[in-house]
Amino acid sequence: MANPQAAITAIAGYVPDYVLSNKELERMVDTSDEWIQSRTGIKERRILKGAGKGTSDMGAIAVQQLLDKASLQTKDIDLLICATVTPDHPFPSTANIICDKVGIRNIGSFDVSAACSGFIYALTVACQFIQAGTAKRVIVVGADKMSSIINYNDRSTCVLFGDGAGAVLLEASNNGLGIVDSILKSDGAGKQYLHQKAGGSVQPATVASVEAEEHFVYQDGRNVFKFAVKGMEEITKEIMDKNQLTTEQINWFVPHQANTRIITMVAKRLGFSAEQLMLNIQKYGNTTAATIPLCLWQWENQLKKEDKLILTAFGGGFTWGAIYLKWAY
Ligand code: UT7
Questions:
Q1: Which segments of the chain does DSSP mark as H helices, in order?
Q2: Closest Cα to atom 3, ligand 1: which residue?
Q3: How is the chain split into domains, by residue range?
Q4: Is the CATH number of domain 5-176 3.30.200.20?
Q5: Is 193 in the pocket of ligand 1 (CB under 6 A)?
Q6: Is the overall model pTM greater than 0.70, yes or no?
Q7: 245-287 pLDDT, tens digit each
C-alpha cells in the first residue's frame, strides 16, 4: 500500500489587536508613510502588547481556534511543531509551551528554526511523520513576536515587521490531495546579511551586548532583497519543473510576505497574475514564520478542493523552500 499523503484539513490564525500604523512610526523614527508604502507595500502591522506576553500566547490562540474549527479534542493530536525565531525562552521550546497552554499532553512537540522559511520547513517535517505513518494528526504553527527583537530606533528594520501566528492541521489523506512535493535549501554564508548577533551561546547577554543593541534583528536589506528574489524564483521554477506544472495550472501562488516589490518581481518573472497571488503584507507586515499560514487563513473561503498551490519563502540563514500542494477541502 502506498504511503499516505499529508493534507491540510483546517487552518486558523491570530493577529494581536494593536495596530502600529506608518503614521505612528513617523513619530518614532525618521521615516514617512510614503517611503514605507512605496518601498515595502506595508501600511500597518500588528503588535502584541502586554507584559509577559510571548509568541506562545499567539500560537495557543491559533491552535485552540484550530481545534474548535475541526471539532477535535486535545487528545486527538499526535504531534505539534512550532516554527519561530522568537521563542518564549531559549528553552523549553515554544511548541512545548503552546501544548501546555492549550492542554495538549504527552505528545511530541518541538520548534523548528528557519526564520522566514520556518513554516515551509515545519510543514515539510510534519509531512514526513504523516507519510511514515507515525502520526495521524499533526499541528504546525508558524508564530513570531518580531516586536521582541526589533530595534524601534532603527528605521531600516522597524517598519518591516509585525507579530502574528497561524496554525494548520495536517492529516493523512489517501485521495491524492495534500502535499505533493517540497524542496528545502539553505546557505549558512547568508548569516552575514541577516541575523541577531547576541543572545545565543556565542555571545550570551551581557550589559555590554545590550548597550551595543546587539539583541535586535540586523539586516542588509539591499543584499537580502537580491537573494530573496533569486531564491524564490529559482526554487518555484524547480518545483514546478519537477512536477511538470505550468503557471496557468497553478491556482494560487503563496509567497512569504517580506516586501511587495520582492513578491511582485518574483510573480512577474514566473508569469503569475495578480489573481493568482496571495498578498496581505499591507495589513500585517512581515510576521516571519506566520506570513504563509496567515495568507491561507485569510483566503480560506476562496480556496477550492483540488486547487493547486505553490508556497515559497526565503529568509535568514539563508534558508528557502517551496511546497506544491493540492488543497484538500
Ligand atoms: O523576510 C526575510 C527576508 N527579508 C527581506 O526579504 C527584506 C529584503 N529587503 C527589503 O525589503 C528592502 O531592501 C528594504 C525595504 C529593507 C529596504 O529597501 P531598499 O529599497 O533596498 O532601500 P535601501 O536599504 O537601499 O535604502 C535606500 C535609502 C537609504 O538612504 P540613502 O543611503 O540612499 O540616503 C536608507 O537609509 O532609504 C533609506 N531608508 C529609509 N528611509 C526612510 C531605509 N529605511 C528607511 C525608512 N524610511 N524606513
A1: 22-28, 33-40, 55-69, 94-102, 118-131, 155-158, 207-211, 221-242, 260-270, 281-284, 291-299
A2: 315
A3: 5-176, 180-326
A4: no
A5: no
A6: yes
A7: 999 999 999 999 999 999 999 999 999 999 999 999 999 999 9
